[in-house]
């Protein structure tokens, strides 16, 4: 998000028509805040782009980005699919009342019990990732006399231009059936031979935080080529080609993400040029749906000034509620929520409170004059903030608030010290 796009009133940052400083006072800090209207807007942009391109499609929210009951309920209201990657995410979605037939179950090491849970709850499709899963699922389906839709996750040999930990489509990956070695064809044969599995299509995901369209165009080309190969060898043409997600967002002024229209138009053109019978196209945006809608509010505390060096301004959160700067060297921008109209006077390190020297949330942040008690708002934290939060140093995880049309609603309670010890047993 570019800071120029932010709105303020009486010098205070406004989020979804609500004063962020009032939110900090009401719910405490650190605090995750989501502007729900931004979430809905992004989903509708994806849908509109597909409809404009004339493609059959599904938008499937990649809920690993942010998985709580309330977000699944928003997704249900917006009539999209979701994908889950664990029994815990599946349980949360079902507890939220999300329809199981619109759930895809991903993961590279699903347990036997997770597969049983998926089958018994009649999830829409299981994304098969390896031969071990094919064998386990086959056993479960025969025992329960059930049938289920499946898709094969492939590693098509395409690397996204992104952080190495975010690359998932290249041959040397823990995910999916390798195409080049023939694994994908063997998996295809095994699934087609199993009468309890309906092979809905093929899937690939090339990475995360991708800004260009080239990788996605190459993926579309490769998936059509693979489909034609499968048609020749197995007389099978996919109902669905799932191109995964990975669409980047703007965390700072150096980021230049593609728009939904750009991405989908180029993909549609490529697909239509290369095959007469274009399958239904699925995408799995996660970060691009919830990332820009999220803000994390902190209270500024201590300060350390060192002669001739950048000062440190500390906040009451850090790597426990946003591990990405420490894990990925991710870059964020922030504003002082109660001093939106005040001039910038310095640049500071924004330091977290955790007992790690690497707990620096923002390395060089322009700031107005600050004092303890000011509210710092870090922007674009909607993806992988809450979902990767932890209790390191025995700190409780923050609350989550949704705002929309000038109204705020608590959707996840703040953890208490009592919550931290609720599972501990005496020795």
Give a written overview of the molecule.
The protein has 427 residues and is of the alpha/beta class. The protein has two domains: 3-35 and 291-420, Lyase, Ornithine Decarboxylase, Chain A, domain 1; 36-286, Alanine racemase (TIM Barrel), CATH 3.20.20. Helices cover 30% and strands 24% of the residues. It has twelve helices and 21 strands. The protein has helices at 20-27, 36-53, 69-77, 87-95, 112-120, 131-144, 183-192, 214-234, 260-274, 287-290, 324-328, 417-420; strands at residues 7-9, 12-15, 18-19, 31-35, 57-62, 81-84, 103-105, 125-128, 148-155, 177-178, 197-203, 240-242, 280-283, 294-304, 312-315, 334-336, 346-351, 360-367, 375-379, 399-404, 407-412. Strand 1 (7-9) and strand 2 (12-15) form a beta hairpin. It is globular, with a radius of gyration of 23 Å. Its cofactor is pyridoxal 5'-phosphate. InterPro entries: Ala_racemase/Decarboxylase_C, DAP_deCOOHase_LysA, De-COase2_N, Orn/DAP/Arg_de-COase, PLP-binding_barrel. It catalyses: meso-2,6-diaminopimelate + H(+) = L-lysine + CO2. Its EC number is 4.1.1.20.
Shape: globular
Question: Helix count, per DSSP?
Answer: 12
Strand content: 15-25%
Please identify which CATH superfamily of the largest domain we are dealing with: Alanine racemase
Work out the number of β strands: 21
Tell me roughly what share of residues is in helical segments: 25-40%
Overall CATH class of the largest domain: Alpha Beta
Computed Rg: 23 Å
**Biggest β-sheet, characterized?**
9 strands, mixed
InterPro entries: Ala_racemase/Decarboxylase_C (IPR009006), DAP_deCOOHase_LysA (IPR002986), De-COase2_N (IPR022644), Orn/DAP/Arg_de-COase (IPR000183), PLP-binding_barrel (IPR029066)
Keywords: Amino-acid biosynthesis, Decarboxylase, Lyase, Lysine biosynthesis, Pyridoxal phosphate
Binding site for substrate: 287, 324, 328, 356, 384
Function: Specifically catalyzes the decarboxylation of meso-diaminopimelate (meso-DAP) to L-lysine.
